[in-house]
């Protein structure tokens, strides 16, 4: 029996616990907001503080990147923390992420870092318009972002950027060229301490208002090869141990990295039913020093996120190839409440199933599903 302490007590820790049980890997979770150690499935407080939990754990890992630095420091000092603090910091700070990508020689959007008005003017000159501006710290799912389309809006946008910089003295803004991509894809893979790497098929992702709504595993060898090379460069440069996700823009078949996520990823949830070994099991295998499991796709699979709903009709449960995963969270507007993995024997059948599912789900709550299924 191995005991893994996960920093973060959300759905990703929950799904690690579910995947770890057959391997005799026991998970407890550190709820960063309350400071409690909790059971990842029931959220029941387990009663011991972080220091004791660190002592009792064989391995420590994380389910998200916005972890207070003091917590990260004590975990690092224990010598039990994987992937690495550097990887977590790169996932939580766009400045570190960008310089990591540059040093690993991995293509990403042209950018500049802004700390004051002079930097902003220089960034407009260097990066050009239109541009996308993102807070270096604390941004996720498209939050903490601005679009600057033309020179007439420079002053108005600057007012908002100046406010964000003033609110947090450690904050910077990263200005990025606007990338005219055709679609967004992501690659999830695992690396263990021996340097073995196992990579899943790419997923094609559809976002609605900056939030992932649909992910479909794709089989495109040339693109897969390109993404895998970038994955290896990033994972090896970080001496990464665990599951890592890279999000890309696909610009006419050329990939640019948009973001790295040093953890199991929403666009990898399809692996629970669509791959030989799911991403949660492979993360645990990697951090526990075990051999990695096969990442091969076993059938055509898509994942549909359930946002702001806490029930679906019985006909969804009755649909062949449909697997519903709830996170046990309190219902809130737009909140990720669960997901549905939809599996079929081939792409055409998957399209049929997704169309059937889109008829059973509320079109307002799942706006992307039908058009995305039609486009498959
Ligand atoms: P992010 O939080 O960086 O993943 O950005 C959220 C979404 O904004 C992405 O999924 C893209 O759809 C869009 N986006 C981010 N950066 C850019 C960019 N440089 N050019 C065009 N669209 C972008």
Automatic annotation (TrEMBL):
Q: What is its EC number?
A: 6.3.4.18
Coiled-coil intervals in this record?
none
CC terms in the record's Gene Ontology section: cytosol
Task: State the Gene Ontology terms under molecular function.
Answer: 5-(carboxyamino)imidazole ribonucleotide synthase activity; ATP binding; metal ion binding; phosphoribosylaminoimidazole carboxylase activity
* Annotated ATP-grasp domain residues: 98-288
Q: In which pathway does it act?
A: Purine metabolism; IMP biosynthesis via de novo pathway; 5-amino-1-(5-phospho-D-ribosyl)imidazole-4-carboxylate from 5-amino-1-(5-phospho-D-ribosyl)imidazole (N5-CAIR route): step 1/2
Query: What is this enzyme's class at the first EC digit?
Result: ligase
Could you say which residues bind ATP here?
Answer: 94, 134, 139-145, 176-179, 184, 207, 258-259
InterPro entries, per the entry = ATP-grasp, ATP-grasp_carboxylate-amine, ATP_grasp_subdomain_1, PreATP-grasp_dom_sf, PurK, PurK_C, PurT/PurK_preATP-grasp, Rudment_hybrid_motif
Q: Name one GO biological process term.
A: 'de novo' IMP biosynthetic process
Q: Which SUPFAM superfamilies does this chain map to?
A: Glutathione synthetase ATP-binding domain-like, PreATP-grasp domain, Rudiment single hybrid motif
Q: Name one Pfam family in it.
A: ATP-grasp
Give the catalytic activity: 5-amino-1-(5-phospho-beta-D-ribosyl)imidazole + hydrogencarbonate + ATP = 5-carboxyamino-1-(5-phospho-D-ribosyl)imidazole + ADP + phosphate + 2 H(+)
The record's keywords, sorted A to Z, are: ATP-binding, Ligase, Nucleotide-binding, Purine biosynthesis
Looking up HAMAP family in the UniProt record yields:
PurK (MF_01928)
The family note in this entry says: Belongs to the PurK/PurT family.
> What is the stated purpose of this protein?
Catalyzes the ATP-dependent conversion of 5-aminoimidazole ribonucleotide (AIR) and HCO(3)- to N5-carboxyaminoimidazole ribonucleotide (N5-CAIR).
Q: How does it assemble?
A: Homodimer.
Q: Would you tell me the protein name for this molecule?
A: N5-carboxyaminoimidazole ribonucleotide synthase
């Amino acid at each position: 029996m191995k005991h893994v302490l996960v920093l973060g007590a959300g759905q990703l820790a929950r799904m690690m616990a579910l995947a770890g049980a057959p391997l005799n890997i026991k998970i407890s979770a550190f709820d960063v907001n309350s400071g409690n150690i909790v059971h990842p499935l029931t959220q029941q407080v387990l009663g011991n503080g972080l220091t004791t939990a660190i002592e009792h754990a064989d391995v420590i890992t994380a389910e998200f990147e916005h972890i207070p630095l003091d917590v990260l420091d004590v975990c690092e000092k224990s010598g039990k923390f994987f992937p690495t603090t550097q990887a977590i910091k790169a996932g939580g700070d766009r400045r570190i992420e960008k310089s990591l990508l540059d040093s690993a020689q991995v293509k990403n959007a042209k950018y500049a870092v802004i700390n004051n008005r002079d930097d902003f003017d220089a960034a407009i000159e260097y990066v050009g318009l239109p541009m996308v501006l993102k807070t270096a710290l604390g941004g996720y799912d498209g939050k903490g972002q601005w679009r600057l389309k033309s020179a007439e809006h420079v002053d108005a946008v600057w007012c908002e950027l100046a406010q964000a910089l003033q609110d947090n003295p450690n904050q910077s803004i990263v200005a990025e060229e606007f990338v005219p991509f055709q679609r967004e894809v992501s690659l999830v893979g695992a690396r263990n301490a021996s340097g073995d790497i196992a990579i899943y098929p790419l997923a094609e992702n559809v976002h609605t208002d900056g939030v992932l709504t649909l992910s479909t595993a794709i089989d495109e060898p040339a693109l897969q090869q390109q993404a895998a090379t970038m994955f290896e460069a990033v994972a090896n440069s970080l001496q990464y141990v665990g599951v890592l996700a890279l999000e890309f823009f696909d610009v006419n078949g050329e990939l640019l990295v948009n973001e790295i996520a040093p953890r199991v990823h929403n666009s990898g949830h399809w692996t629970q039913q669509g791959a030989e070994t799911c991403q949660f099991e492979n993360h645990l295998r990697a951090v526990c020093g075990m051999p990695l499991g096969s990442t091969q796709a076993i059938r055509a699979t898509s994942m549909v996120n359930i946002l702001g709903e806490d029930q679906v009709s019985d006909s969804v449960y009755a649909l062949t190839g449909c697997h519903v995963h709830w996170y046990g969270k309190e219902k809130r507007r737009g909140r990720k409440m669960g997901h549905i993995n939809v599996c079929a024997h081939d792409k055409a059948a998957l399209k049929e199933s997704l169309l059937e599912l889109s008829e059973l789900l509320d079109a307002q709550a799942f706006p992307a599903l039908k058009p995305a299924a039609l486009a498959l």
